[in-house]
Amino acid sequence: MSVAAVELQERTSDLEVARAVLDTEARALGTLAGALDENFSRAVDVLAKTTGRVVVSGMGKSGHVGRKIAATLASTGTPALFVHPAEASHGDLGMVVAGDSVLALSNSGETAELADLLSHAKRFGLPLVAITGRAGSALAQAADVTLLLPAVPEACPMGLAPTTSTTMQIALGDALAVALLTRRGFTTTDFRSLHPGGRLGAKLRRVRDLMHTGDEMPLASPETPMDAAILQITEKRFGCLGIVDEAGVLIGIITDGDLRRAMGPDLLRRKAGDIMTRQPRVIGPDALAGEALRMMNESPRPITALFVVDMGRSGVPLGILHIHDLLRIGVA
Prior knowledge:
- The chain is an alpha/beta fold.
- It has two domains: about 5-185, 3-Layer(aba) Sandwich (Rossmann fold), CATH 3.40.50.10490; about 205-330, CBS-domain.
- The chain has helices at about 5-35, 40-50, 60-75, 85-90, 115-125, 140, 165-185, 190-195, 200-205, 225-235, 255-260, 270-275, 290-295, 325-330, and strands spanning about 55-60, 80, 100-105, 130, 145-150, 220, 240-245, 250-255, 275-280, 280-285, 305-310, 315-320.
- A five-stranded parallel β-sheet has the order 2-1-3-4-5, sandwiched between helices. Strands 6-7-8-9 form a four-stranded mixed β-sheet. A three-stranded mixed β-sheet has the order 10-11-12.
- β10 (about 280-285), α13 and β11 (about 305-310) form a beta-alpha-beta unit.
């Protein structure tokens, strides 16, 4: 067999292994979803009533998953932190105080390092929610609510490496976080306050915070001669001109494309209202920057600027937003 044939066989084998792993884990998640019962709602009740923080803990791979769950909870409106169970026994129990609840993860339910944390929770009457794969384990017996992982095989061919079990743990953590944010009515505004940085934070900024207002807006009446209209398009540098009626309502727009389509020997003798595009795309001031980008990119004709209008006053323009404004904050 040639070297190329061997390499192809290895690549095919790798793909088969990968697909088998993903298929095993996908089926496990389906089984987990079907196994959920009233204990899930009870767990959400416990965490929703927590006046302090949700203290997440786990050892080994469960600990890595626990860190992610704590981060997801905190970023979606449920105050949470991760406490390493071994460190807890050496002073970090002081981080777990009255008003907190504990979310402990252990597939076996017999993780020795969790013992001191569980005893601390019982001593101070802290609610304990367990995610474990064994109903009769020490962790399940100690918990106020147990979320039991179904008995499904690990994706590892030896059945030993935590793969399917940790995938179920992380998915169950996501389910808890989303159920909690839904119950609390967590909004995009709340989400933005917890995610001010990066591209996600930029997409959650409001149009009113980015738009150009007042004299910066390129506006003219439909009776404006085209030579004056072209001068204003050039001066304002948005590549367009909004056309407003006597009441100040936006009734049309002239873009570079409109100028090209109307190009002819009589262009400068025409009026703005003759060549404008009626019913231009507009957006409200409270829309998100990400929504503005989506509108600019809509088919069949992407645009580079949007007029921001008062939706409650029949479309009076309040400002204008250019795609460069979105580029500047990292949205586009």
